[in-house]
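PROTEIN DESIGN WORKSHEET
SECTION A - STRUCTURE
LENGTH: 215
TOKENS:
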């Protein structure tokens, strides 16, 4: 997809904060940034690598997660259209490797602002500062909530909360491994708890599907 297909109007619709900024800033972003698209389950960034630039999400959703040496994962937060990963931004500003992993959940479209341009924009333009500070607050709140859940909540409570939050009309389509990765636990733990929920009449289990019995 050529850069010309990413119109100014579309960019401003996805990131309305730049509507208040100078036209030259938006033109500069569209001129120097790299467009990228990827299908679901594509690794977009690996822990320990240097970021190619500030990654703005134009469409779709990606997951930011940590992975242990044994392969166990925990989701830190998700990034959707109109957002960027604050860990990505902080690693660029400090010129340090990316301390997490990023993977696409759906088809994604990304716009990557080069590191030198991002640093120029963040120190020069109020609109970029406003965008960054808003996501610092949002992502920090997400991580703090995650820490509180891991430390203070029982895994069965976290699992039921997850099912309720992610389900549509009381139905969640997901593998046990996917849920385990989201919650930072083992697949066997998720399977055992789901079986217990089923015995208690809280859910009905089928292949890659969980149905809440009391919506």
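SECTION B - SEQUENCE
RESIDUE ASSIGNMENT:
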């Amino acid at each position: 997809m050529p850069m010309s297909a990413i119109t100014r109007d579309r960019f401003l619709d996805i990131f309305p904060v730049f509507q208040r900024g100078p036209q030259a800033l938006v033109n500069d972003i569209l001129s120097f940034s790299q467009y990228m698209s990827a299908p679901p389950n594509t690794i977009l960034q690996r822990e320990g690598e240097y970021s190619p630039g500030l990654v703005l999400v134009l469409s779709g959703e990606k997951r930011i997660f940590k992975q242990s040496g044994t392969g166990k994962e925990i989701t830190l937060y998700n990034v959707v259209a109109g957002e960027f990963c604050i860990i990505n931004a902080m690693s660029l500003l400090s010129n340090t490797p990316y301390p997490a992993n990023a993977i696409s959940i759906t088809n994604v479209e990304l716009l990557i602002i080069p590191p030198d341009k991002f640093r120029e924009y963040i120190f020069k333009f109020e609109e970029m500062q406003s965008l960054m500070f808003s996501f610092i607050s949002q992502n920090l709140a997400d991580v703090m909530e995650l820490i509180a859940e891991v430390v203070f909540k029982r895994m069965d409570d976290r699992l039921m909360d997850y099912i309720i939050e992610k389900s549509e009309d009381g139905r969640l389509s997901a593998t046990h491994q996917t849920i385990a990765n989201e919650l930072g636990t083992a697949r066997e733990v998720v399977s055992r708890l789901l079986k217990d929920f089923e015995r208690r009449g809280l859910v009905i289990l089928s292949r890659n599907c969980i149905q809440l019995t009391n919506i």
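SECTION C - NOTES
The chain has eight helices and ten strands.
The chain has a mean pLDDT of 88.
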